[in-house]
Amino acid sequence: MAFESRVALGRTGLSVCPLAVSGGYSVDARSLREAFDRGVNYWYHGSFRRPAMTQAIRELIAERKRDELVLVLQSYTRWSWFLEKSLERGLRKLGADRADVLLLGWFNSAPSERLMERVERLRARGLFRYVAISSHERTLFPKLAADPRFDILHIRYNAAHRGAENDVFPSMGAGPRPGTVAYTATSWGHLLDPKKMPSGEAPLRARDCYRFVLSNRDFNVCMTGPADAAQMREALAALEDGPLSEEEMARARRIGEHVHGQ
Fold it and tell me: What CATH number does domain 7-261 carry, 3.20.20.100, 3.20.20.60, 2.40.40.20, 3.40.50.150?
């Protein structure tokens, strides 16, 4: 059974494909357009704003398909003045008047109030609608989830790094949650590497890494970062294959535990 073609991204109300795509790993514009035609609409244009994703976004804007796209622009900066310049520069390069999501990248403690004041001023100007934040400090996420200024959480999660199951979701409360997006589904390729497998065990396929994430109902979206057309098609196959079976899940967890132990 395939995954749903659209899911609600937490309390944002956005309707998105459960598979998302990053343009930072050299995938070409044609493959990005293929993914868009398959319904993949959460596009992460990160710190490495590659020309191919820039091209594909500009094409979609020219074709009046901008409203079908959920455009995510990221900044790692901790300086409020530079955040504004980075956002404005990114929008100009795309020929866009707004992003849908501003992603504050890799905060292992809560952003400063000075930075958040600038974020809210930029939101009030209409430069974006929702604030996302990523972190490697899992225990920070329940606190962020309780802050209404944060709409989407980007959380590291895969078969080898499952700490979010214990450190994040049990502490998030019963009310409406932020949207949840998983990244590093393949554990930087380690789950695909035959050299890192238990004895006699074949590695996971990339599609199975994405299926592992999306089989966890605590996540709305799984990020993929393809480097070429073949990897993009492999990721898209996860949507058709749907959730892992009990046997597949047990195997993924067994492999994940071995990779994590290494």
Answer: 3.20.20.100
